[in-house]
Amino acid sequence: MATNRTFTMIKPDAVANGHIGNILAMITNAGFKIISLKLTQLTVADAQAFYEVHTARPFYGELVDFMSRGPIVAAILEKDNAVSDFRTLIGATNPADAAEGTIRKAYATSMGENAVHGSDSDENAAIESAFHFAGREQF
Predict the structure, then answer these.
(1) Which residues are part of the catalytic machinery?
(2) For the whole prediction, is pTM greater than 0.90?
């Protein structure tokens, strides 16, 4: 059963390139309510833990290095059909394949530096939200 919450991160590339405000505007203009929001930085250990499911993948080390190289913006979003609608809003992982009007089409620079993360399931949205936000930080 679909829930009404999802998790996102604005990744270090988009933060460094000054796109936080524009990405948050795209999110709220698409009807999402921001439930929790913070600027933070993942340590290498944090990034390793968050992306643990990808440890066997060849890109794991680069992903950990990338995600821990600078600040991120973590957020919990609320909207009916949140996970699916947000995945549509962010677009394909490869910005060259992303549809016009998506976050990645507008702000990603490559498949590896693709501006934003979005949970891929309701279960992962809950896990990822809890990873970044204590219960008292979720409204």
Answers:
(1) 117
(2) yes
